[in-house]
Predict the 3D structure of the following.
Amino acid sequence: MDYVYAFLVGGAICVIGQILIDKTALTPARILTGFVVAGVILTAFGLYKPLVDFAGAGASVPISGFGHLMAQGVEKALKEDGPIGIITGPLTAAAGGICVAIVFSVFAGLVSKSKEK
């Protein structure tokens, strides 16, 4: 059932994004930013962690899960390092994902051929 829950929750998040793209004048960048902020806000109110516990990757893989990850990093770093944790927490928590994104982006840039518009 874990796979079903992950599929349903992840799919629902994607459906919300698709509806926002189709029915509003928001740009995809603003929608992505909104999902990250929503993940942070839901984590701050204690609502995103139960969703991750219920749906697993269905809630932690979408972009809202990135906001959740950063909020968790801030919370942990504030307890350990004090106010400086506001800056270092999200960077530390998301460092692995950011590094992988940069490495694969560079690799894709090296193996692909650019075209002039």
Observations:
- DSSP finds six helices and no strands in the chain.
